[in-house]
Structure formats: C-alpha cells, structure tokens
Hints:
alpha+beta, two-stranded antiparallel ribbon, 9 helices, disordered N terminus
Amino acid sequence: MIIFQLKNEKGDFLTWSRNCGNKFIKVKMNGKQSFINHLVEALKDCFKDNLLEIILFGSKARGEGKSFSDWGIFIIGEDGLFEFEHGRWSKAALSAQLSVEKSAKAVISLFGPLTKTNDLAGTLLELRLNPIPVEQSRWIEKLAELTEKFGVKEHVLTSYGDEVALKTPHQIYDRSKAKRAIEMAQNALKIATQMIEKISSTLTTSSY
C-alpha cells in the first residue's frame, strides 16, 4: 500500500513518476482531469493485478482545494502478499512495514497535511485532540500501537538488517515472522480504510 501527495506549485501542472521493475513510468499533464485519467492508467500499468484501489483524499477530494493545492493519492495493493506467497520472507516483511507506516500517514493526512516525523505513533495519538467519536479514537489508538510496534526499528531491520548481530534481513525473517508482519499490515490497512469511510460525510473520496 502506498500513499503520496502530488506537489502542485504552478496551478494544475502536475507530474508523477515511478520505477516499475524494468521500466520507468512518468505522467506529466496540464489539466487536472486529463492528468488524473492518465495517472490512473499509469498506475494500472505499473501495479497490474496487485492494484486494488485508488483513493483521492484531502482538500481536493473535499472540493476545497485551490489551484495550487497538492493532490493526495492513497493506493491499495498486495505487494506484501505477493512476496509472501513466493517465499520471499524479508521482502514480504519490508512491504508490510511500509504498509503499516503508510496506513498511519493516510489517517494523519485526513486531519491535515503530512509533516516529516519519526514519531508517527505520537502524531496519531495527538489526533484524539480533534472532536472525533469514541469509536474512531479507539481505532487511532490501535493504529498507533501497531505503528509503534512496527515502526522505525523494524524499518531498519527489514531494510538493512541487524548490524550488531551481523544479520541480513534475509537471515532475520522467516515464514512465521513474515506472516506476523503481513497480519499487522492488514490490521493497519483495515483501520485506515474504516477511518476514510467513516469520515466520508465530511471527506468525499473518489476511487477508480
């Protein structure tokens, strides 16, 4: 699962690019609807059958965006499951860790622009200061717990390994650890999706 914001500093002139395996996809269009249509097609071409859903969020989705506003894109895919099914445990764990992180960022972005921080769990808990229902507050607490357990430390292990123990990610993660990571990512994604759906009365989402 991926979340990103398209920077829009000159009206509706937007650009997006991604390295997809052996090819580099780039979308650059002048005109928001034309750009979105081309972006969706590029994402389909990039992620193939692993692409599940594309959601527009933020001020643009609410109809409050200005010509210079960023576009928030929430992409749901199955990269981690694909790696797990093919026995690539460390890569599955890496995808899962990134998915948990992106789920946290997706929820944070519902309440305001994303900022750089190493404490996503803390930022999530601060969201409870907003006037939100008790149910959503509990979801945020659970997501913060998952983010804390599978946060910066786990990111280092899944990406680089354990330098102290002299172990690579491949040596650290076996099937059981990868399965646990996937389950945590699925729980985090479920919470993020529920939050988006529950706030739909004030945040209009568009999916393709």
